[in-house]
Amino acid sequence: MSSTDYDLSVLTAMFVDDSPYMxxxxxxxxxxxxxxxxxxxxxxxxxxxxxxxxxxDLLITDASMQPMDGFxxxxxxxxxxxNPNPFxxxxxxxxxxxxxxxxxxxxxxxxxxxxxxxxxxxxxxRVISVIERPRQFVKVGPYFGPDRRRHTxxxxxxxxxxxxxxxxxxxxxxxxxxTWAI
Length: 182
What we know:
CATH class of the largest domain: Alpha Beta
Number of domains: 2
CATH topology of the largest domain: Rossmann fold
CATH architecture of the largest domain: 3-Layer(aba) Sandwich
Order of helices and strands: EHEHEHEHEHEE
Radius of gyration: 18 Å
Structural class: alpha/beta
Strand content: 15-25%
Number of strands: 7
Shape: globular
Strand order of the largest sheet: 2-1-3-4-5
Oligomer: single chain
Largest sheet: 5 strands, parallel
CATH superfamily of the largest domain: Response regulator
């Protein structure tokens, strides 16, 4: 599916990045994709304030900013009891694609992770992904956010998972069955 299959003009997106160049670039890409309203912020602190006032349908944030980075912004959006929408889809952009950063983003409640430099196609793919495949939210211990397992049907432990009468033992996930989001 493409952006032309959806009326994105009804959406409000927020983009947070400390680089004025990136804010302009992503703002313009989102407008060209058909998003109706795009709000930008230069850091996590100003973004959090704007987020609570504007309540966007989609948040896209850079990971590395000062004084509040994208990780803290995501954590506060997901965990703040006064947040008007803790379920908002969040796409994190970063030039740091090391597994530790990806796992940190996942553990804060990021929905999708996108490596910089960003292409129009990769951004569109992630936006369409959060529209077409919304993920259930879970609260487990200190974590609140999208279910981090991509294939939840692959990790079912009950009998007769697929109605196979020959197989009656509980299903165990294979090494690749517990694929993490991001």
